[in-house]
Amino acid sequence: xxxxxxIRVAVVGFGLGGRVFHCPFVSAVPGLELxxxxxxxxxxxxxxxxxxxxxxxxxxxxxxxxxxxxxxxTPNETHFPLAKAALEAGxxxxxxxxxxxxxxxxxxxxxxxxxxxxxxxxxHNRRFDGDFLTVKKLLAEGALGRVAQIFSRFExxxxxxxxxxxxxxxxxxxxxxxxxxxxxxxxxxALFGTPARVxxxxxxxxxxxxxxxxxxxxxxxxxxxxRYTCEATLLSAEPQPxxxxxxxxxxxxxxxVDPQEPALVGGAQVPPTESAEPWLDEPESAWGG
Length: 289
Hints:
The chain has 9 helices and 12 strands. By secondary structure, the protein is an alpha/beta fold. The strands form 2 sheets. Strands 3-2-1-4-5-6 form a 6-stranded parallel sheet, with helices on both faces. It starts with 6 loop residues before the first strand and ends in a 24-residue tail after the last helix. Residues 256-289 are annotated as: Disordered.
């Protein structure tokens, strides 16, 4: 592929993931071209992105030799077969979390990507959240001294299951650990690498639920000793802090989530990446401290 040509990207799916987390950013990044969108039914993708080719099946898209990169943003159970088919078709692949339902499937995709000589990457967009980048900066500066404990939480209040949502359906690859777990655990791994020990509690807290709707994952590190706790629940009417970092020189506490997701869901437009203007700055009162 010539470096002077844009990378032609096809996004598979135009639900929340494709509409909010993939298509807007592909369109905003120089060097990427939103060349295609797979939307089986409806015309919302064509209305939002009239210059993109709308494919009615993944097979139709994969048969297009001009597509370089495929972003898979579909229900969890489809991630493995779609990513495998894309790699076999000679495409680079980005896959929403969770990449697959089992580690064996992930290993198969990794091995296949090496055979095909293609990039395979999970979509870990939460590495770019403002609060996480602040924590990363504080750790790099040593501002809190030796850090002994970190609490990272995603909490929502949804006491009743959402009717008709595939995320609420029983399955081997649904549930909150597969939904929010990859975000908080990946952030820990990005900061500190592989832990010495891992323990977890994965549970059901709501009165009516077909999925595991709460979890606590504890990653323990040695030399120096650090306990990193990742949590999520759907029964938090009064959310606890998003981050609590406790060190020998002080603590950092951050409430609230990065404003990008709610803004995009509400229809905000992503500016071109070369724009010098800050985008969705949080007020100083929300910076944590």
